[in-house]
What we know:
With 148 residues, chain A is an alpha+beta fold. The first copy, chain A, has helices spanning 17-20, 23-37, 88-99, 131-137; strands spanning 5-13, 41-48, 54-60, 63-70, 75-83, 103-111, 121-129.
Amino acid sequence: MNTRGRHLLVEYTGCDVDVLDDLKRIEALMKEAARVAGATVVNSVFHAFAPHGVTGVVVVEESHLSIHTWPEAAYAAVDFFTCGDCVPEAAKDVLRDGLEAACVEIMMVDRGMGEPGHGIHLRSHRTELSASAEAVADPVTPTPRARA
Amino acid sequence: MNTRGRHLLVEYTGCDVDVLDDLKRIEALMKEAARVAGATVVNSVFHAFAPHGVTGVVVVEESHLSIHTWPEAAYAAVDFFTCGDCVPEAAKDVLRDGLEAACVEIMMVDRGMGEPGHGIHLRSHRTELSASAEAVADPVTPTPRARA
Protein backbone atom coordinates (compact mmCIF):
# COMPACT_ATOMS: atom_id res chain seq x y z
CA MET A 1 0.00 0.00 0.00
CA ASN A 2 1.15 3.51 -0.76
CA THR A 3 2.24 5.26 2.44
CA ARG A 4 2.58 8.69 0.84
CA GLY A 5 0.60 11.49 2.34
CA ARG A 6 0.38 15.23 2.10
CA HIS A 7 0.24 17.18 5.33
CA LEU A 8 -0.70 20.86 5.43
CA LEU A 9 0.11 22.71 8.66
CA VAL A 10 -1.98 25.87 8.51
CA GLU A 11 -2.21 28.94 10.74
CA TYR A 12 -5.23 31.18 10.34
CA THR A 13 -4.92 34.65 11.90
CA GLY A 14 -7.22 37.67 12.00
CA CYS A 15 -10.23 35.34 12.15
CA ASP A 16 -13.83 36.00 13.21
CA VAL A 17 -13.66 35.39 16.95
CA ASP A 18 -17.31 34.36 17.23
CA VAL A 19 -16.83 31.58 14.70
CA LEU A 20 -13.66 30.41 16.49
CA ASP A 21 -15.65 29.94 19.71
CA ASP A 22 -18.68 28.23 18.12
CA LEU A 23 -18.25 24.46 18.36
CA LYS A 24 -21.13 23.67 16.01
CA ARG A 25 -19.83 25.97 13.27
CA ILE A 26 -16.27 24.69 13.66
CA GLU A 27 -17.50 21.10 13.47
CA ALA A 28 -19.55 21.87 10.35
CA LEU A 29 -16.60 23.63 8.71
CA MET A 30 -14.21 20.76 9.42
CA LYS A 31 -16.62 18.16 8.05
CA GLU A 32 -17.24 20.29 4.98
CA ALA A 33 -13.46 20.61 4.59
CA ALA A 34 -13.13 16.81 4.69
CA ARG A 35 -15.87 16.47 2.08
CA VAL A 36 -14.34 19.06 -0.24
CA ALA A 37 -10.92 17.41 0.10
CA GLY A 38 -12.48 14.18 -1.14
CA ALA A 39 -11.97 12.37 2.16
CA THR A 40 -14.31 9.85 3.79
CA VAL A 41 -15.19 10.63 7.40
CA VAL A 42 -14.80 7.72 9.83
CA ASN A 43 -15.38 9.50 13.14
CA SER A 44 -14.92 12.86 14.83
CA VAL A 45 -14.40 14.46 18.23
CA PHE A 46 -15.07 18.10 19.11
CA HIS A 47 -14.60 19.76 22.47
CA ALA A 48 -15.26 23.29 23.74
CA PHE A 49 -12.90 24.66 26.36
CA ALA A 50 -13.71 27.09 29.18
CA PRO A 51 -13.59 30.02 29.04
CA HIS A 52 -13.15 29.79 25.26
CA GLY A 53 -11.62 27.82 22.44
CA VAL A 54 -12.54 24.72 20.47
CA THR A 55 -10.55 21.61 19.62
CA GLY A 56 -11.69 19.10 17.06
CA VAL A 57 -10.46 16.17 15.05
CA VAL A 58 -12.07 14.53 12.06
CA VAL A 59 -10.70 11.04 11.47
CA VAL A 60 -10.95 10.14 7.79
CA GLU A 61 -10.10 6.97 5.94
CA GLU A 62 -7.23 8.94 4.41
CA SER A 63 -5.75 10.11 7.80
CA HIS A 64 -7.12 13.14 9.73
CA LEU A 65 -8.00 16.82 9.98
CA SER A 66 -7.53 18.70 13.27
CA ILE A 67 -8.25 22.19 14.59
CA HIS A 68 -7.40 24.15 17.73
CA THR A 69 -8.79 27.66 18.15
CA TRP A 70 -7.77 30.60 20.36
CA PRO A 71 -10.64 33.10 19.96
CA GLU A 72 -8.86 35.57 22.25
CA ALA A 73 -6.04 35.72 19.69
CA ALA A 74 -8.30 35.45 16.59
CA TYR A 75 -6.15 32.44 15.74
CA ALA A 76 -6.57 28.79 14.74
CA ALA A 77 -3.96 26.06 14.19
CA VAL A 78 -5.20 23.49 11.69
CA ASP A 79 -3.75 20.33 10.14
CA PHE A 80 -4.94 18.59 7.02
CA PHE A 81 -3.18 15.25 6.66
CA THR A 82 -4.45 13.12 3.78
CA CYS A 83 -3.23 10.22 1.70
CA GLY A 84 -4.26 9.01 -1.72
CA ASP A 85 -6.09 11.28 -4.13
CA CYS A 86 -7.43 13.78 -1.60
CA VAL A 87 -6.92 17.50 -2.13
CA PRO A 88 -6.02 19.05 1.25
CA GLU A 89 -5.56 22.46 -0.42
CA ALA A 90 -9.30 22.59 -1.05
CA ALA A 91 -9.95 21.85 2.63
CA LYS A 92 -7.65 24.71 3.57
CA ASP A 93 -9.76 27.17 1.59
CA VAL A 94 -12.99 26.04 3.27
CA LEU A 95 -11.52 27.06 6.63
CA ARG A 96 -10.09 30.31 5.26
CA ASP A 97 -13.54 31.37 4.09
CA GLY A 98 -15.44 30.00 7.08
CA LEU A 99 -13.14 31.59 9.67
CA GLU A 100 -12.92 34.82 7.62
CA ALA A 101 -9.16 34.70 8.11
CA ALA A 102 -7.14 37.78 7.17
CA CYS A 103 -3.93 35.78 6.85
CA VAL A 104 -3.27 32.11 6.12
CA GLU A 105 0.20 30.62 6.58
CA ILE A 106 0.70 27.19 5.02
CA MET A 107 3.54 24.72 5.43
CA MET A 108 3.17 21.75 3.12
CA VAL A 109 4.99 18.57 4.06
CA ASP A 110 5.14 15.25 2.26
CA ARG A 111 4.93 12.24 4.59
CA GLY A 112 5.71 8.56 4.19
CA MET A 113 8.02 9.00 1.22
CA GLY A 114 9.22 5.45 1.65
CA GLU A 115 12.88 5.59 2.62
CA PRO A 116 13.70 5.19 6.34
CA GLY A 117 15.06 8.47 7.68
CA HIS A 118 13.95 10.35 4.56
CA GLY A 119 10.19 10.06 4.83
CA ILE A 120 9.38 13.74 5.49
CA HIS A 121 9.95 16.37 2.81
CA LEU A 122 9.25 20.07 3.36
CA ARG A 123 7.64 21.02 0.08
CA SER A 124 6.68 24.67 0.62
CA HIS A 125 6.03 27.36 3.23
CA ARG A 126 4.08 30.44 2.22
CA THR A 127 1.50 33.00 3.29
CA GLU A 128 -1.77 34.06 1.67
CA LEU A 129 -3.55 37.29 2.56
CA SER A 130 -7.27 37.67 2.09
CA ALA A 131 -8.43 40.18 -0.52
CA SER A 132 -9.42 42.70 2.14
CA ALA A 133 -6.14 42.21 4.03
CA GLU A 134 -4.16 42.68 0.83
CA ALA A 135 -6.00 45.92 0.26
CA VAL A 136 -4.85 47.10 3.69
CA ALA A 137 -1.33 45.75 3.37
CA ASP A 138 -0.76 47.12 -0.10
CA PRO A 139 -3.02 50.16 -0.60
CA VAL A 140 -3.28 51.70 -4.00
CA THR A 141 -0.82 54.55 -3.91
CA PRO A 142 -2.41 57.74 -5.19
CA THR A 143 -0.54 59.25 -8.09
CA PRO A 144 1.17 62.37 -6.80
CA ARG A 145 0.14 65.54 -8.53
CA ALA A 146 2.76 67.43 -10.42
CA ARG A 147 3.56 70.66 -8.70
CA ALA A 148 2.23 73.68 -10.40
CA MET B 1 -3.52 33.17 26.37
CA ASN B 2 -0.29 31.83 24.95
CA THR B 3 -0.85 30.35 21.50
CA ARG B 4 2.61 28.81 21.24
CA GLY B 5 2.80 25.11 20.62
CA ARG B 6 5.38 22.53 19.70
CA HIS B 7 4.51 20.08 16.98
CA LEU B 8 6.57 16.97 16.32
CA LEU B 9 5.96 15.21 13.00
CA VAL B 10 7.44 11.75 13.45
CA GLU B 11 7.93 8.81 11.09
CA TYR B 12 8.64 5.42 12.60
CA THR B 13 10.03 2.80 10.23
CA GLY B 14 11.17 -0.78 10.69
CA CYS B 15 8.48 -1.30 13.33
CA ASP B 16 7.00 -4.47 14.76
CA VAL B 17 4.17 -5.17 12.33
CA ASP B 18 2.04 -7.02 14.88
CA VAL B 19 2.02 -3.99 17.18
CA LEU B 20 1.15 -1.70 14.26
CA ASP B 21 -1.97 -3.74 13.55
CA ASP B 22 -3.09 -4.10 17.19
CA LEU B 23 -5.63 -1.38 17.97
CA LYS B 24 -5.61 -1.98 21.72
CA ARG B 25 -1.83 -1.77 21.96
CA ILE B 26 -1.70 1.32 19.76
CA GLU B 27 -4.39 2.96 21.88
CA ALA B 28 -2.54 2.10 25.10
CA LEU B 29 0.75 3.42 23.69
CA MET B 30 -0.80 6.70 22.56
CA LYS B 31 -2.48 7.29 25.93
CA GLU B 32 0.75 6.46 27.72
CA ALA B 33 2.53 8.90 25.37
CA ALA B 34 0.06 11.62 26.34
CA ARG B 35 0.60 10.89 30.02
CA VAL B 36 4.38 10.93 29.75
CA ALA B 37 4.24 14.20 27.79
CA GLY B 38 2.36 15.73 30.71
CA ALA B 39 -0.85 16.21 28.73
CA THR B 40 -4.40 15.78 30.00
CA VAL B 41 -6.57 13.49 27.88
CA VAL B 42 -9.99 14.90 26.92
CA ASN B 43 -11.18 12.25 24.48
CA SER B 44 -9.90 9.76 21.94
CA VAL B 45 -10.89 7.92 18.79
CA PHE B 46 -9.27 4.75 17.44
CA HIS B 47 -10.22 2.87 14.31
CA ALA B 48 -8.93 -0.36 12.74
CA PHE B 49 -8.93 -0.57 8.97
CA ALA B 50 -9.46 -3.64 6.81
CA PRO B 51 -7.35 -5.50 5.85
CA HIS B 52 -4.87 -3.81 8.20
CA GLY B 53 -3.78 -0.54 9.74
CA VAL B 54 -4.87 1.56 12.68
CA THR B 55 -5.69 5.26 12.97
CA GLY B 56 -6.08 7.01 16.26
CA VAL B 57 -6.29 10.45 17.77
CA VAL B 58 -5.97 11.46 21.40
CA VAL B 59 -7.44 14.90 22.03
CA VAL B 60 -5.69 16.53 24.99
CA GLU B 61 -6.29 19.84 26.70
CA GLU B 62 -2.98 20.93 25.21
CA SER B 63 -3.91 20.00 21.56
CA HIS B 64 -3.64 16.44 20.17
CA LEU B 65 -1.65 13.31 19.36
CA SER B 66 -2.40 11.30 16.23
CA ILE B 67 -1.19 8.05 14.66
CA HIS B 68 -1.67 6.27 11.35
CA THR B 69 -0.08 2.85 10.84
CA TRP B 70 0.77 0.85 7.72
CA PRO B 71 1.71 -2.62 9.04
CA GLU B 72 2.45 -3.81 5.51
CA ALA B 73 5.23 -1.20 5.35
CA ALA B 74 6.30 -1.53 9.01
CA TYR B 75 5.60 2.22 9.16
CA ALA B 76 3.69 4.71 11.30
CA ALA B 77 3.14 8.46 10.84
CA VAL B 78 2.63 10.16 14.19
CA ASP B 79 2.05 13.74 15.30
CA PHE B 80 2.55 15.13 18.79
CA PHE B 81 1.15 18.66 18.96
CA THR B 82 1.19 20.17 22.44
CA CYS B 83 1.05 23.61 24.00
CA GLY B 84 2.15 24.86 27.39
CA ASP B 85 4.63 22.91 29.47
CA CYS B 86 4.16 19.52 27.83
CA VAL B 87 7.15 17.53 26.64
CA PRO B 88 6.27 15.99 23.24
CA GLU B 89 9.81 14.57 22.96
CA ALA B 90 9.02 12.19 25.81
CA ALA B 91 5.87 11.05 23.99
CA LYS B 92 7.95 10.36 20.90
CA ASP B 93 10.17 7.95 22.84
CA VAL B 94 7.19 6.01 24.20
CA LEU B 95 6.16 5.20 20.61
CA ARG B 96 9.73 4.43 19.54
CA ASP B 97 10.02 1.80 22.26
CA GLY B 98 6.48 0.49 21.93
CA LEU B 99 6.62 0.11 18.16
CA GLU B 100 10.18 -1.23 18.34
CA ALA B 101 11.10 1.17 15.56
CA ALA B 102 14.47 0.76 13.87
CA CYS B 103 14.46 4.35 12.61
CA VAL B 104 12.72 7.49 13.87
CA GLU B 105 12.62 10.65 11.76
CA ILE B 106 11.55 13.80 13.61
CA MET B 107 10.61 17.20 12.25
CA MET B 108 10.02 19.71 15.05
CA VAL B 109 7.93 22.74 14.25
CA ASP B 110 6.94 25.65 16.46
CA ARG B 111 3.33 26.76 15.98
CA GLY B 112 1.40 29.90 16.94
CA MET B 113 4.46 32.09 17.30
CA GLY B 114 2.22 35.14 17.37
CA GLU B 115 2.95 37.17 14.26
CA PRO B 116 0.52 36.76 11.34
CA GLY B 117 2.29 35.05 8.45
CA HIS B 118 5.22 34.07 10.70
CA GLY B 119 3.55 31.66 13.07
CA ILE B 120 5.28 28.45 11.97
CA HIS B 121 9.00 27.93 12.54
CA LEU B 122 10.85 24.82 11.42
CA ARG B 123 13.10 24.18 14.39
CA SER B 124 14.84 20.91 13.47
CA HIS B 125 14.68 17.81 11.27
CA ARG B 126 16.72 14.79 12.23
CA THR B 127 16.83 11.00 12.36
CA GLU B 128 17.48 8.63 15.25
CA LEU B 129 18.43 4.99 14.78
CA SER B 130 17.70 2.41 17.44
CA ALA B 131 20.71 0.85 19.15
CA SER B 132 20.26 -2.40 17.21
CA ALA B 133 19.81 -0.53 13.92
CA GLU B 134 22.95 1.51 14.59
CA ALA B 135 24.81 -1.72 15.18
CA VAL B 136 23.71 -2.90 11.76
CA ALA B 137 24.28 0.42 10.02
CA ASP B 138 27.72 0.96 11.48
CA PRO B 139 29.23 -2.43 12.23
CA VAL B 140 32.53 -2.64 13.99
CA THR B 141 35.02 -2.98 11.21
CA PRO B 142 37.43 -5.83 11.87
CA THR B 143 41.04 -4.77 11.80
CA PRO B 144 42.55 -6.17 8.62
CA ARG B 145 45.42 -8.48 9.16
CA ALA B 146 48.73 -7.49 7.79
CA ARG B 147 49.75 -9.72 4.93
CA ALA B 148 52.39 -12.16 5.73
